[in-house]
Amino acid sequence: MADETAAAAPPHDSRREAIAFFIGVAGWLVPGLGHALLKMWGRAVMCFVTVGLLVILGAGMRGNVFSSSGNDAFDTLGFLADLGTGTFYLAARSLEINGADVSHAGGDYGTRFLATAGVLNLLAALHAYEAARGRKA
Amino acid sequence: MNAGMGFKLSHWQSLVLFAVLISIAFGFLSRRRPIDRVKYIVWSLFLFLLIGVGIGWAMYPFSH
Lengths: 137, 64
What we know:
The complex is a heterodimer.
Chain A: H1 2-8, H2 11-29, H3 33-37, H4 41-60, H5 73-83, H6 88-95, H7 105-132
Helix pairs in contact in A: 2-7, 4-6, 4-7, 5-7
Chain B: H1 11-30, H2 34-59
Helix pairs in contact in B: 1-2
């Protein structure tokens, strides 16, 4: 019965889902791109600027940009959060040529800025995905 | 730009910068009309700063 229901679903629904998924992934890879594809220009610019500023500030304050070779669960969580910035993760790594320095408060703040940039971008990508599905805007 | 140019920000400057950026992002994501966004951003920023300073003072006795 469930299979019949699925088979009877309009084909444009699966196409819409695929497009929404593509928009979500695009929004994750390049902050703001998901909203830009939906022509939500204000939100697109806001995502790009805020995530970009958080990454630049975080790296400039010598926050910790976690890598995949973490020693414990917190490192792994930090890596996943940092990875949320998409391609900006690579920018953060290239900006921090002298490495992290969390021996002072600035470096600690920088680590939080970078993690927040990633989580914020994931939230924005999810928002773009939901908007593309027509659930909210 | 590189880390050699590193930003030197105080606790307060970092807190304000963080609060401003996140409030703007939340305002744009969660509200549609400009006036609603402004209200949300101002209110969110106020709460960020209030709670941040509040937690700072709550921790003050433990630093002495």
